[in-house]
Write a structure and sequence with these properties.
binds glutamine, 19 helices
Length: about 575
């Protein structure tokens, strides 16, 4: 037991997936955690990943979804983003574990001789390490409930020891301390037009075979799960009918907490964990009102605004999950519904750009790595700048806005990033090793939350309500070379945010008399946007885009002037 651990103080909810992956375990688990948080209980989520990587930093977002970065610099699974947004809570490396981390700890102990001559085994040593991780989180978070999401699907070899660890945990912690939830999937083959429960039954059988009796079953399905199916599942898995819930598809993930409450799932968890006396009903009423306010605004926001996003991974939405969410938050704040137009820039040229961007009211060039599509993105940025289309450049999109400005406004031919062209004539974006030293980072990526100093009187200052400093999250290797700052600024680019003690440029903009909204940031503002606290940089983009959309609508009616003067390039 870790120091300070008080058995019985913290309860545990374990969420397993059966039948298949991709059921939205993170969305389910975070929604349930939110229901509990609303009751005034302290919650702490943790995701246990089966893979051997130490973190998600090296994973391909095309296969695994975006890499989500926490304030402490941990690179983790995108589900952590779901938890942060749903709970409006900053998480840390304590909330994310992989098999790689668990085994590293075990092997380090083995080398230190901590196992006192014993052979080191999956049980009890590896499972013991899992339990230690969970209890350490309980101590550090003082949580009433720790929500444990087991990655993958019951039956995967790589997750088997996690499942065994949770079984042991429930045995050690004793009655009323742990709640097992099986998330399953109800098939509805189009050819039958009927819901079938067999796959779900077999998945839950598998869990029973591992020694775990679920107390709650949540059924993912396209349509509400029928009584007949729920009855069958109840009978087959020893779970009372009133604890087999339907969790069918709905319009927005933010509707799920209310859906769970409507089905009584929150009360079932309270009963199972005997937590009724820790509930603050007044706090719950208030929290629900605030949340439902957001839902109402979300549903009422119907006026469409189209945002074009250029992206290498255009076919996989998961690689831009946080940006999509941040746009929804900002759209709701502005009373509009954001539609996303994915723009492939690999074939983009000066000739095709206008046509490709004709329908969009705003443009985002998001983060990325490598060379592919960069020239096309720079072409898009030029088009946005010259035609006063609202623009938000995120990380790589910030760097490319600098390159575009250097080339086309400052006249620096051959301006580029050494990431794109190592021997370019004007390396306006470069790796700056001495800055990395100043920053004192061991690795070569600048990761996690950093304070950013905002220049007074700028658009950034307006967006951030005149806060002198704001905290943003970073994940990058390259920066604006400080030797070019004076030239760029002399030609009209404004660096409105920088690192407090070093010349690291972190926000750029064009003056508002030149362009309605041209903003870039070396950070990733999408990572810290929350439904109830939409990120100002996204809110600003959508506000400007909504105005452009309104003008465009007005222009379709004859007789109204709308034309705006383009900013001249050299
Ligand atoms: N490739 C760029 C860098 O490493 C941008 C990174 C990003 O967009 N996350 O600095």
């Amino acid at each position: 037991m870790p120091a300070g651990y008080k058995p019985g103080r913290t309860k545990f909810v374990f969420v397993f997936g059966t039948v298949m992956s991709g059921l939205g375990k993170g969305i389910f688990s975070s929604s349930l955690a939110k229901c509990m948080q609303d009751k005034g209980l302290t919650v702490a989520p943790i995701k246990l990943e089966g893979y051997l990587n130490i973190d998600s930093g090296t994973l391909n977002p095309y296969r695994h979804g975006e890499v989500f970065v926490l304030d402490d610099g941990m690179e983790c699974d995108m589900d952590l983003g779901t938890y942060e947004r749903m709970l409006d809570q900053d998480l840390s490396r304590l909330n994310f574990s992989t098999s790689g981390q668990i085994f590293t700890r075990v092997l380090e102990k083995e080398r230190r001789g901590s196992y006192l001559g014993r052979d080191v085994q999956m049980i009890p040593h590896v499972t013991g390490e899992v339990k230690t991780r969970l209890r350490e989180l309980a101590v550090a978070s003082h949580a009433d409930i720790v929500f444990v999401e087991i990655g993958g699907t019951v039956g995967d070899v790589e997750n088997a020891y996690y499942i065994e660890a949770t079984r042991e945990m429930a045995f050690e912690e004793g009655p009323d301390s742990c709640c097992f939830v099986a998330l399953t999937y109800i098939l509805e083959p189009a050819t039958l037009g009927e819901q079938k429960s067999k796959a779900a039954q077999l998945g839950i059988r598998r869990l029973l075979g591992e020694g775990i009796q679920p107390q709650i079953i949540a059924c993912r399905a396209h349509r509400p799960v029928t009584r007949k199916v729920r009855e069958k599942l109840a009978m087959y898995s020893n779970v009372p009918m009133d604890r087999v819930f339907s969790m069918h598809d709905c319009e927005s993930v933010y509707l799920i907490p209310e859906m769970l409450r409507g089905a009584g799932l929150d009360l079932a968890v309270l009963d199972i964990l005997k937590l009724n006396d820790r509930v603050d009903r007044e706090a719950e009423t208030k929290a629900r009102q605030v949340w439902n306010g957001y839902i109402t605004r979300l549903k009422e926001a119907t006026r469409p605004v189209t945002i074009g996003i250029t992206g290498k991974y255009t076919s996989v939405r998961d690689s831009y999950a946080s940006i999509i969410q941040a746009l929804e938050h900002a759209g709701t704040a502005n009373g509009v519904r954001v539609q996303i137009d994915w723009i492939d820039t690999s074939e983009m040229t000066e000739k095709t750009v206008a046509e490709s961007l004709r329908h969009v009211h705003g443009i985002i060039v998001p983060g990325g790595f490598g060379v592919r599509g960069t020239e096309g993105k720079i072409t898009c940025i030029r088009h946005a700048r010259e035609n006063r289309i609202p623009y938000l450049g995120i990380c790589y999109g910030f760097q490319m806005a600098v390159i575009e400005f250097a080339r086309n406004v400052c006249g620096l031919d051959g301006a580029s990033s050494t990431e794109i062209e190592p021997d370019c004539a004007q390396p306006v974006i470069d790796i700056l090793p001495e800055q990395k030293q100043i920053e004192g980072l061991g690795g070569n990526m600048r990761l996690g939350g950093r304070d950013v100093q905002i220049r007074p009187g700028t658009l950034a200052a307006k967006l951030f309500n005149n806060a002198p400093e704001v905290r943003l999250r970073f994940r990058h290797r390259y920066e604006v070379d400080p030797r070019y700052i004076a030239t760029l600024e002399a030609h009209g680019l404004v660096f409105s945010g920088k690192a407090p003690d070093y010349p690291i440029m972190q926000i750029l903009e064009l003056p508002q008399d030149v362009h309605p909204y041209f903003v870039g940031t070396q950070a990733h503002p999408e990572l810290t946007s929350r439904p109830l606290r939409p990120h100002p940089m996204f809110v600003g983009l959508i506000r400007a885009a909504a105005e452009r959309a309104a003008h465009a609508r007005a222009a379709q009616r004859p007789g109204l002037p709308t034309a705006s003067q383009p900013l001249q390039s050299r």
